Amino acid sequence: MLMLDPIDFIYNSASATKNAMHRLKLKTNPFSEKPIRGNTKFFVGRTSELREIADIFGAAQYGSVVNAAIVGTKGIGKSSLLNIIYYAAKKQGHWAVELTASQITPRQFLIQVLYNLIRDNLISIDGTICSEYIQHSQKIMEIYRKLVDYGDRTPVHYPRERIERDLDFLLNEVKEEDKLCIILVDEADQFAKKSCLSLLQFFHSFLYEDGILAFFAGSPTLMDDLTKISPAMRDRIPKIINMPPLSKEESYDLIRRRLEDAHIGNAKEFDPFTDAAIDKIVEECDGIPRKIIMTCSESISIALKKGVSKIDEDIVKMAMEVLGISVGHQILNHLTPAQSKIVRALAELGGSSTVTELAKYLGNSPGTIGTHLSDIYEMGYIYKERRGNNVYYTLSKELMDVLMNDND
């Protein structure tokens, strides 16, 4: 029996991958799904959206604060746009806080705001207080020590009232009057749940504080969903910035920029992709940056395994098939058993059905089925539309692909 040394195996495999990557005329795979983190060379288009944000910034610095919602479909680039706002705010000397929404209480959210404010804006990389805040250093460090292990484990002797006082101290005593505190909340759809009503009520007053400018990112229905739970939120977030898909020219530019960054010498514009492969990606991905990036990345992975030097249209088709199935299965794994049963029943009924039809098919009450469907809809895994007097729920393309294929 041949004994394989695991260290040699990993080393040899890594070397083989490096050689295969060079065969594709690439130093690395340049397609990453992570937000751009201030690297503007990969930021494509969005001229009108940036202009709207610049106008909001300009007005806010002179006292006319208008909070905004940034809305668009999944993968459209909302997180990257929030990241651009973050670095633009920091460059101008404003305080900036990046947060991801979840089903949390106002107290937990306040803890996150406080922790990120201090960590991102008041404490230097070496762990010391920034020089302009030295006079408040003792108080800042006292707050920070309570927040280092923030979350549910935060001691009960640090109640919400105390947290609010500490936040008020930072915003009104420490922050300079001419600076804004910019709060960036990603995945804000989580707030549009009845369990988050108290958090929305908190925001109702918090967003009127002087010097606070907030941007909420979420789905196209974000503001409608928020105002159903708390109608007053419409007044607090009056500006809506819509993010449409990239144009075809912008889609080509997105791929071109990333490839150029990873090319070895003598590589052509779209190497290792053929022109037909690039056209296929642009045509099928509908201007959604995440789809474009994932398809390009998966195509490169398949090409490495096959040991080819060119990525043609067939490899792109294979990549799209792999991604379609994998995304669908990831969604199924994320659902509860009851939710999974319902989406599978939807597939068995042809992919679209009413609450009444599903309830009869599964032998459950319409109320139970409706509650589950609402939860799945809020997660973005199914769609709904009114046809006459009935509301139909329809599987997303990702679930349709995997479930309808399974049924076949």
TrEMBL record:
All copies of domain HTH arsR-type, residue ranges: 319-408
One Pfam family matching this protein: HTH_5
Any one GO molecular-function label of the UniProt entry: DNA-binding transcription factor activity
Cross-referenced InterPro entries: AAA+_ATPase, AAA_16, ArsR-like_HTH, ExeA_AAA_ATPase_DNA-bind, HTH_ArsR_DNA-bd_dom, P-loop_NTPase, WH-like_DNA-bd_sf, WH_DNA-bd_sf
Xref: PANTHER family: GENERAL SECRETION PATHWAY PROTEIN A-RELATED (PTHR35894), PHOSPHORIBULOKINASE _ URIDINE KINASE FAMILY (PTHR35894:SF1)
Protein name per Swiss-Prot or TrEMBL: Transcriptional regulator, ArsR family
